[in-house]
Amino acid sequence: MRRRSVLVCATVLLSLLFLGGTAGAVEKGPDGKIIMRMAHSSPVGNPTDIAAKKWIELIGQRTGGKVEVKLFPNEQLGSEKACLEGVVLGTIDISLNDAAYVADLYPIAGVFDFPFTFRDWDHYAAMLKNPIFPEMATIIEKEVGVKTLSIWIYGRRLLISKKPVRSPADAKNMKIRTPPSGLAQENARVLGGIPVTIAFSETYMGLKQGLADAAENPSTAIYDQKWYEVAKYLAMTNHVWNNEILTMSKKAWEAFTPEQQKIVRDTSNEVGVFRMDLQRQLETSRVDDLKKLGMEVVVPPSLDPYRKLASDIKKKYTTKYAKYEWAKWHDRVVNIGK
User: Which residues have a Cβ under 8 Å from the Cβ of 22 and sit 6 or more positions away?
Assistant: First the structure.
C-alpha cells in the first residue's frame, strides 16, 4: 500500500511539473496575489465544471482579485483518487472528489453516498442547510489533515446496461463497472451485480469491449461520456445521490487571511446550492435526450428489492465501522427533515 501511494504521489508531482507547476503548489505573485490549482475529473462543460468555474469566478470577485484559482478539468492533474492524495500531501491545492474516495480516507464521509439515503430533493436541500457536514468536516480535518469545505451533488446514479434490468435478479452475474473505492463497489452489489473496477475515462471502451456489462452514473454523465453508444438500456434506479466533496490542502487554506477563509467557506456552501439546482434542472432533460438518442428507459416495478440489499450492506457497515459511529452519522442524515 505504501509503495502504491508513493507511485501515485510521484505521478501527481510529474503532472504538476509537466504543467509548469511546483511541488509546493501554492504560489504568490509579486502583488501578494495567491495563485492555486484546482482539479476535477469531469469534462469541460459538464455540470461539475460549470459549478467549479462559478466558484472560481466568485472567489476572485469577492477577494478583490487577490485569489486566483487555475482550473484543471478532465483528470489533467491525474485521476480523481490521485488528486485527492495530492491534496493530502499538499502538492495539489484544491480538488473535487467523489465522497466515496474521501470515505476511503475516513469512512463517515461515505454516509451521504450510501444507497437510498435521500428521499427526495427537499431532503437533500435540507441536508445542505443542516450543521452535519460542517461537524463532520472538523473531524475529517483533524484525522486526515485536509479541509473539506462543502458538499456538492454530482447526481442521482442510474444503471446503464446491455440488457434490460428491472430488479436485482435481472443483474445476477452482471459485471457492473464501479470506481476503485470500497463504498462505490457496493453500488454494484445493491443493483444485484458484480463490481468491476474500471477508470471513469476508460468506461466507454470497457463497455464496448465487454469488460463490463453495465455501469452506473447520473444521466448527465452518461450523456456527456456518450455511454449510450455502447449500452442501450437505462434503469431508473436513482440508487445513490452521488456527491463530490470540495477538498483543500491545509497548506493552501493557511495561505488565506481569516477574511479570505470566510469568503472561501461561504462561497463553497453557496455554490453547493447552485450545483444542486443545476443538477435538478438537467437530470430530467438529460433523460429525455438519452431517449432521443435511442436509449430504452426501464422503470423498475419496485425499488424494495434494492432497498433490502442496501439494508443488508448497512448492517455490514455498522459493524465494520463501529468505532467511527458510522450508523449514527448515517441515521442523522436519513432523519433530516422528518
Answer: 16
